[in-house]
Design brief:
This protein is mainly alpha-helical. The chain contains 25 helices and no strands. It is globular.
């Protein structure tokens, strides 16, 4: 037996010794858990980070780029060339979200039946093909059709990737990784401006307008990357070819015992049951979580689609406006990383939902108050930064919070897809609240964003109180009482309903 294997075995033996601890004192129970933060564990996690995170970031950049590049295409002439009138551009944005939101739960159920790399590759090939075809549409109805099909094809990627991360990392390792992954949205927001600026220079090549080449080239790249996904995306610790057998066992052991107390255990090999679905749909806390998600989805989709136009209203030329939006999204990315690191370090979630959203609230209030004439363009641009910095960071805490507090694995997969379904229905609102006729002040857009952010902050506070109260009730029960009432198998199958499970607050 190697030194590394011996060290892991000793940790497992230590865990067996503390299984019978009285969990009346939750702090004592947590203290008795093996730390799993030795040098070898950190080395294994670095191997996982190196193989998993870069792939997911690349895929999410392509995903967000493909769904959100309408804003850049529009200021490059899409509406004029397709003769869009009135609210038709907004409708084209909106139709994406119907299938995108409603198919997320079915998609994650398919994910549990297939290898994640296989399912994600299928999705990418589909949406890359649709994106390419969007570059040759000739009118409003063709644009509606491709946007709808893009929603169908992209619906499964984000919930699949988010769930996949929860199968690799323990609860207070997750948000930092989720931030790196989700930061791909902010990166793509910045990168899309620069990329679109370059692609639009192809105007006239092959007789096509520059905005068409945005869709065509980005779609082709997505298809090519999708063909590689089965070979580059690791599916699970058990199937990771880059890990040794004892490393796989070590990762799975620490994940299975990541339930908040020494006596708890999470099941990663459970089977689907109707209870997994009804347990999600009937959980009021998850419905409240959706309200928290709207603080991100409504605001970010509205901001992403409208930011280039807002910048144009500040006096920048159309082409330059695509470049000027880049710092806004870079700031959003940095905010995601900072708040995620703090959330994992402090081992708390709700504060890092309410806190970032409060920053976005300041931005909305300021943008409503600043006069849109009289030389205040620089001040307006300054407060635009508050929106991506606050709204991007909040959703990462929410997703990590939800993944932390749902078990076993089927309930987690369905639950994460469920809140994303609700969140992305918010995109229907976000794509319609910045009305062109209200430019440059956009009172409806900023005002509605302000109200939604306040509701999201209040919802996060209520969730924190609910989880804290549930933990206190479970702390009042001794391990002896619990084991007298339930068998070990029943406790494992109960998932987050187990008296041994402790919710993250």
């Amino acid at each position: 037996m190697t030194t590394n294997e011996k060290e892991v075995k000793e940790q497992a033996q230590h865990l067996d010794r503390v299984e019978g601890l009285d969990s009346h004192d939750a702090g004592l129970a947590e203290h008795a858990l093996p730390s799993y933060h030795d040098k070898e564990t950190n080395r294994i996690l670095r191997k996982v980070d190196t193989r998993l995170l870069p792939v997911l970031v690349l895929l999410y950049i392509l995903s967000f780029l493909d769904r959100s590049n309408m804003g850049n295409a529009n200021i490059a002439g899409l509406s004029e060339d397709l003769n869009l009138v009135g609210p038709q551009y907004n409708y084209a944005l909106m139709v994406f979200f119907f299938p995108y939101a409603l198919l997320e739960i079915p998609s994650n159920m398919i994910l549990k039946l297939l290898n994640p790399s296989t399912w994600i590759a299928i999705l990418m090939l589909a949406w890359g093909t649709v994106m390419t075809l969007q570059g040759i549409v000739q009118g409003y109805h063709g644009l509606l059709a491709t946007r709808t099909m893009l929603g169908v094809a992209e619906s499964g990627f984000f919930p699949a990737a988010s769930y996949l991360l929860t199968t690799w990392y323990c609860r207070f390792e997750l948000q930092r990784r989720m931030a790196i992954f989700y930061g791909g949205a902010a990166i793509s927001g910045a990168f899309s401006g620069l990329l679109s600026y370059g692609i639009v220079q192809m105007d006239g090549v092959a007789g096509l307008e520059g905005w068409r080449w945005i869709f065509i080239l980005e779609g082709i790249v997505t298809v090519l990357v999708g063909c590689c996904v089965p070979f580059i995306l690791p599916d699970s610790p058990r199937k990771a070819s880059f890990l040794e057998e004892w490393e796989k066992d070590h990762l799975m052991e620490r994940l299975e015992h990541d339930a908040g107390t020494a006596a708890g255990q999470v099941d990663y090999d459970d089977k689907f049951s109707v209870k997994s679905l009804t347990g999600v749909l009937l959980d009021w806390k998850l419905w409240l979580t959706i309200v928290c998600c709207w603080g991100n989805s409504i605001i970010i989709y509205a901001f992403t689609y409208t930011a280039p136009t807002i910048v144009v209203s500040l006096g920048y030329e159309n082409a330059i406006a695509q470049l000027v939006t880049m710092p806004l999204f870079v700031a959003g990315f940095l905010g995601v990383l900072l708040f995620a690191w703090l959330a994992d370090k402090r081992r708390i979630r709700w504060v890092f939902v309410a806190g970032p959203y409060s920053i976005a609230v300041v931005g909305c209030v300021a943008l409503l108050a600043i006069p849109q004439t009289g030389g205040y363009e620089g001040v307006t641009f300054f407060f635009l930064f508050f929106i991506p910095v606050g709204a991007y960071a909040g959703i990462v805490s929410i997703l990590s919070w939800t993944g932390n507090n749902l078990a076993p694995s089927w309930k987690r997969a369905i639950g994460m897809a469920f809140i994303l379904t609700g969140a992305n229905l918010g995109g229907l609102v976000g794509s319609n609240i910045f009305i062109a006729a209200q430019a440059p002040s956009y009172p409806l857009g900023y005002g509605l964003c302000l109200g939604i952010l306040c509701a999201a902050i209040a919802s996060a506070g209520l969730l924190a109180l609910a989880y804290r109260n549930q933990n206190r009730k479970r702390d009042a029960m001794s391990a002896e009482e619990i084991r007298a009432k339930y068998s070990d198998d029943e406790l494992t199958r109960m998932g987050d309903k187990s008296p041994f499970f402790r919710y993250v607050i």
